[in-house]
Amino acid sequence: MTATPLVEVRDLVTHFTHRVGLFGTRREVVQAVNGVSLDVAARETLGLVGESGCGKTTLGRTILRLVARTSGEVRFDGQDVFALDLAALRRMRRRMQIIFQDPDGSLNPRLSIGRAVREGIEVHRLARGAEADGRVEALLAEVGLPAGSAARYPHEFSGGQRQRACIARALAVEPEFIVCDEPVSALDVSVQAQVLNLLLDLQARRGLSYLFISHDLAVVRHVAPRVAVMYLGRIVEHGPSDGIYQRPLHPYTQALLTAVPVPDPKTKRARVVLAGDPPSPVNPPGGCPFHPRCQHPGKNESCRTVRPELRELAPGHQVACHLADR
C-alpha cells in the first residue's frame, strides 16, 4: 500500500427507502451498505467478494457516485467525490469508470460497437473526426477484437467479445480506476480466463487500479493480491489474498472457500454448508450479522448482541468476529 491511496472509502453507508403494502403506505429501508471502509492504491487490484445481495455492487456504484450515499466519505486522489459540483464531477468521470456484469444489458443494441466506444471520447472532447476513429480502432485491437469490429452491432458478437467491447468503452476516456462489477460471471469458463488475463495485461500496460467485485473466490485469487469479504453490507474480513486463502479467520469466509471447486477429483475436502438464507437487509439481525447462520462451536450471547468490529489478528489481516482467535 502507498502512503496516500488512490481511492479512500470511510464509513460509507448507502440505504434505500421504498414503499410497500397495497397502497404504499408503509416505508422500508434497505440497508445495502453499512459503514464500509477500504482503500485502493494506485496500480493495485482489491478483490471484493460475497454472496449475491450482500451489497457489493451498490458499494462499487456508490464509490463512483452512480448511487447516492446516505453518509460516509469517498476520496479519489485526495478529492471528496461527493463534494464535487457537476462540472468537476464530469471531469472526474474520466478518471473513474465501470465494467458492468452483463455486457448485453450495458451495450445499446442500436449503436455499433465503434459508436459505443467513440461516445466517451467525444463527450470528454478527447478527439474528433479521423483521430477519434483511429482511437476507436486502436482500442478495439488492444482488447483483442478483430479488424472491422467498429461497424458491427452487439448482437453480432459472442458474450466474451461483447465484454471486450465494454472494456474498450471503459478505457476510451483513459481512466485510472475501474470498478469491475463481476465482469466474467456471465461468461463461459474458458472465456473467463481470457478476459481475466486481458484485464491483468491492461493493468500492467496502463497502470490501472481495479476494484474487482465477484462472488467467486477462485476468480478473485487469480487477479487480486488483497481481498475484502462482504456480508450483509459490512466487511467481515480483509487482508492479503494468500493469508485469507491459507488461513481464513471468519466462519463466513471459511464457508465460501469450501464451496470453491477443487480441480483434483481425488482430493477430499470437508464442505461447510451454511444454514438458511442470508437475513434481509431490511431487517438485519443484531450483534454479529452472521450469527444466525454461524456454526462456530463457541458461538455465545455476545455474538447475538454485540456487533464485532474489524481487528487485526495478523499483519494486514483483519476480521470482524468475536471468536476468530479461539
Number of helices: 11
Read across the widest sheet, the strand sequence of neighbours is: 6-7-8-3-9-10-12-11
- The H/E string reads EEEHEEHEHHHHEHEHEEHHHEE
CATH homologous superfamily designation of the domain at 7-95 and 175-247: P-loop containing nucleotide triphosphate hydrolases
CATH architecture of the domain at 7-95 and 175-247: 3-Layer(aba) Sandwich
The helical percent reads 25-40%
According to DSSP, the number of beta strands is 12
Largest sheet: 8 strands, mixed
Rg (C-alpha, Å)? 21 Å
The computed structural class is alpha/beta
- CATH top level of the domain at 7-95 and 175-247? Alpha Beta
CATH fold topology of the domain at 7-95 and 175-247: Rossmann fold
What shape does the CA trace take?
globular
Average per-residue pLDDT, rounded, comes to 92
Beta-strand residue percentage: 15-25%
| N- to C-terminal distance | 29 Å
Segments where pLDDT lies below 50 for 5+ residues? none
Assembly status: single chain
Keyword list:
globular; Rossmann fold; 31% helix; 326 residues; 4-stranded antiparallel β-sheet; 11 helices; alpha/beta
Helix and strand arrangement:
Layout: E1 7-20, E2 26-40, E3 45-49, H1 56-63, E4 71-76, E5 79-80, H2 86-93, E6 96-99, H3 103-106, H4 113-123, H5 129-142, H6 159-171, E7 177-181, H7 189-206, E8 209-214, H8 217-223, E9 226-231, E10 234-240, H9 241-246, H10 251-258, H11 301-305, E11 311-314, E12 317-319
Parallel strand pairs: 3-8, 3-9, 6-7, 7-8
Antiparallel strand pairs: 1-2, 1-4, 4-5, 9-10, 10-12, 11-12
